[in-house]
Amino acid sequence: MEQRVEFVALVAGDHVTMAEACRRFSVSRKTGYKWLERYEAGGFEGLRDQSRAPKTHPQALSPAVAKALLEARRSHPHWGARTIVRWMARRHAGPLPSPSTVTELFKRHGLVPSPASRPKHHKAESPQPDFSAPNRTWCADFKGQFQMSDRSWCFPLTITDGYSRFLLCCKGLAGTASEPTQEGFRRCFLEHGLPDAILTDNGLPFASTAVGRLSRLSVWWIKLGIRLHRIVPGKPQQNGRHERMHRTLKQETADSPAATLPLQQPLLDRFRAEYNYERPHAALDGRSPGHVYQPSSRPMPRKVRSPDYPGHQAVRSVHTDGSFNFRGDVVFLSEALVGEPIGLQEFDDDRFVVRFGPVELAVLDCRGPRPLLTRLAPSPLARAA
User: Phi and psi for 142 in degrees, rounded to 5?
Assistant: First the structure.
């Protein structure tokens, strides 16, 4: 400010020329004339720093748009600004503000909670299953159970298409028993067809500690021609897109449960409809999952058949106790395979690979006095999952 006053005093008093004053103060002639014009218009007060804020805001929010955005946020408190802007674009003819502007609007009205610190997830070292098209890989899990007002429990069975994020099933069950879970998948297969693969964790009823981590449910999937993908134990981030949906599901339904399990199902159905057809998804360029998903071209067969094996493999049937007979000995395999045929393919003298369909389960070594069954490590595809 002192330099500006001295500069104007020299020029206005005709002590030096404008060019000479600008050289002395190391400013351009444009800046010099600007200071002189401010002095002539407002005296020495005109030389003070002025606000750089624009005098007009052509992109300012109109009261009507701001009201509509706030109403949308209050109706969908768990939707982010980007999602709401995309949702509004379908219903609003005029221009809409950027998501960052909408976020600031929500903050001013107390509609943005303080961010909670969450642990960082490291990227999985192995590649993920194929999510390049609908029905290549479905993701399945049970959302963590929550209690109804009548003290009963709800275990939501959720199934999503990994490519489109379409929520294929959101069924509230009383537990994680195999038969009700299989019935949920059966209805899903009848409605949407069969996927190429299913990605799950390693818990019941999807997997077990038996040979090949097989459960009765996963045996049924293999018979339907579905590949098994499982995450590495303790790494739920490998099914991250499904876990992200679970977070939204919990916010929308589990935080305010219904009185009973039957009354909870309409809330789950309403969430599924909104998630599939209303809520824009950032990973889908703002489209909803229902506008991307296409049903599978593989229909659910009327009869589920056990695997067939080529003639060079020895075929045995698994007994009711999970064992099978081979060369006069009884070998225990898995109770999940009771009543199913298995194939034994010799790869070395008196050493056999035990298979169920395309899945290699174990190595049977008959070189000793008694057969020795050794479990095989999970396939690279299972580890990659």
Answer: -105, 125
